[in-house]
Design a protein that fits this description.
Domain ABC transporter (chain B): 2-240
Shape of chain A: elongated
Keywords (chain B): ATP-binding, Cell inner membrane, Cell membrane, Membrane, Nucleotide-binding, Transport
Number of helices of chain A: 9
Protein name (chain B): Amino acid ABC transporter ATP-binding protein
Number of strands of chain A: 6
Oligomer: heterodimer
Pfam family, one (chain B): ABC_tran
Distance between the termini of chain A: 31 Å
Largest sheet of chain B: 6 strands, mixed
Subcellular location (chain B): Cell inner membrane
Structural class of chain A: alpha+beta
Number of strands of chain B: 10
Chain lengths: 320, 244
């Protein structure tokens, strides 16, 4: 049978149509329940103009005000003769020359940009993911190699570790780490959270590493050993580089899962992205918008991550 | 050079006991070329793998250049350095270029400097006739070329003995010749070699001695002329009727 080449773009167009249709019907559904979209309330949760109040240090009078552009320089003279000079934003100035001020009176404010709760939450989620991911990779590599070890104790211990961690929910593990181990060893909540996530990831990485190593043909190890390499040299130079190439897709999946699982540490009051989102909702009441934003921010981490993984995969494929 | 005394290897899988190598005693002198023949499943590959410790044997002694393999004090990695091995399926490292394949063990085991090991590798590639492929990955090479790289890789460690485990069995027929030519050159240069093979022509032409195995037992140990023209053992006679 002859293969006919058919145009692909009408199907892609259909895909776009389906997605647009879904978005429109979602919008219609929310407007039916008379939800008012207030996207304009969202940006302030990423960054806002913080105000620092500038106050008089002692009782006195305003000697002089010099306004240059947006800033006003206010000179105060205290009753005890001490002089105080304050720079404030001119539109926040509440005094004029000759006014009396009491100690602690607000002269005006200075404004500067500050990161909002969602930005902080994103940062916390990022560093939690990176730290526990790196630790999890190290733990997983070690535990995976232990599972393949000839030493029965190492093999047993790593099997117990993997089975215990894989058989219990991450949420429960986080509670155990925070309330039990954290109390016994007096750990901070961040430490408990990172430790729980790292151990959880490590168990899955261990299985991925084990599968990868076992998938490499036995002849590779035999060839390396017959050249005089010892077991660890053979693992390091011959087996692991080939295994790594094979396990890259499941490994990337595991790290993407980890980024999403960091949302669970919100239960021990670590203010990462999900908890920041909840807090933003309590003051903005824009439930839908904030949750969409939070979901978008997780995507912002994970889409580049999977892009990175597939690029690495292509680079390693050059020897095929 | 190689001394084998009362070698026994038993495979015990699910109650099925197979004596893969059954009480074999032989010796290979320096610069001797020994070809091991026998039907499949006769234990000839297992015998070869016992010689460099890839297979743990149950009883007996194996020594190469006076170094006892069964002695717990023997450093198995130091032992294997002196024994090159070539496999049926080449077993080149696919994630490394040809040059890196030849340099890895020189670097990690022999601790040779970069210039020295690369010069050695290039000289060996020249010798096996594929110098122009130094920077290719193994997947770009034909089977015959891959096997020649594998031979060069083993030679880079300057072994005292070379073991060949059916080096031409996985090759297309037109590529067998180029690999056998390399092996012949090696034999002429005085390398001590043990080859498990089905190439009767090679055995007749190059071998100093032929060992015939069946059911793990060493049944014939004779010169090629003697073995091919007047085999003594009835099973060797039956084998030769089949293959010739």
């Amino acid at each position: 049978m002859i293969k006919h080449k058919k145009a692909q773009w009408p199907w892609h167009a259909l895909t776009a149509l389906v997605l647009v249709g879904l978005a429109v019907s979602l919008y219609l559904a929310t407007s039916l329940m008379s939800y008012e979209w207030r996207w304009n309330r969202v940006p302030q949760y990423f960054a806002y103009q913080a105000e620092d109040a500038q106050r008089a240090a002692s009782n006195g009078t305003v000697q002089d005000i010099v306004i240059t552009g947006d800033t006003a320089r206010v000179s105060l003279k205290g009753e005890d003769g001490a002089e105080q000079v304050l720079d404030v934003d001119s539109n926040s100035l509440q005094l004029s020359r000759g006014d009396d001020v009491a100690e602690g009176d607000q002269v005006g404010v200075t404004r500067h940009w500050a990161a909002g709760p969602l930005a902080w939450g994103l940062w916390t989620t990022l560093w939690l993911s990176v730290v526990s991911g790196a630790l999890g990779l190290v733990i997983g590599l070690f535990a995976g190699l232990c599972r393949l070890s000839n030493n029965p104790t190492l093999r047993d211990l790593s099997t117990v570790y993997v089975e215990l961690v894989r058989g219990t929910p991450l949420l429960v593990q986080i509670f155990i780490f925070y309330f039990f181990i954290g109390t016994v060893l007096n750990l901070s909540r961040e430490f408990a959270g990172v430790a729980a996530l790292a151990l959880f990831t490590g168990a899955y990485v261990a299985e991925i590493v084990r599968a990868g190593v076992q998938s490499i043909a036995r002849g590779q190890n035999e060839a390396a050993r017959s050249l005089g390499l010892n077991a660890s040299q053979s693992m390091r130079h011959v087996i692991l580089p080939q295994a790594f190439k094979r396990v890259l897709p499941p490994l990337a999946g595991q790290f993407i899962s980890l980024v999403k699982d960091t949302s669970l540490v919100s239960v021990i009051a670590i203010t990462e992205l999900t908890k920041s989102g909840r807090e933003a909702i309590t003051t903005s009441f824009s439930t839908f918008e904030i949750w969409f934003c939070v979901a978008g921010l997780y995507l912002l981490i994970n889409l580049p991550l999977s892009h990175l993984a597939s690029r690495l995969e292509r680079r390693l494929a050059q020897s095929d | 050079m190689i001394e084998v005394r009362d070698l026994v290897k038993v495979f015990d899988t699910r109650g099925q006991v197979v004596r893969a190598v059954d009480n074999v005693t032989t010796r290979v002198a320096k610069a001797e070329v020994v070809v091991v023949l026998g039907p499949s499943g006769s234990g000839k590959s297992t015998f070869l793998r016992c010689l460099n410790g890839l297979e743990h044997f149950d009883e007996g002694h194996v020594a190469i250049d006076g170094l006892q393999l069964a002695d717990p004090k023997t450093d198995i990695n130091a032992y294997r350095r002196e024994v090159g091995m070539v496999f049926q399926h080449f077993n080149l490292f696919p994630h490394m270029t040809v040059l890196e394949n030849l340099c890895l063990a020189q670097k990690v085991v022999r601790k040779r400097g970069k210039a020295e090991r690369e010069a050695k590798a290039r000289a060996l590639l020249e010798k096996v006739g594929i110098a122009q492929k130094a920077n290719e990955y193994p997947s770009r090479l034909s089977g015959g070329q891959q096997q020649r790289v594998a031979i060069a890789r083993a030679l880079a460690m300057e072994p005292k003995v070379m073991l060949f485990d059916e080096p031409t069995s996985a090759l297309d027929p037109e590529m067998v010749g180029e690999v056998l030519d390399v092996m012949k050159t090696l034999a002429q240069e005085g390398m001590t070699m043990v080859c498990v093979t089905h190439e009767m022509g090679f055995a007749r032409e190059v071998a100093d001695r032929v060992l015939f195995f069946d059911h793990g037992k060493l049944l014939e140990d004779a010169s090629p002329a003697q073995f091919f023209d007047t085999p003594k053992d009835p099973r060797a006679q039956a084998f030769l009727r089949q293959v010739l």
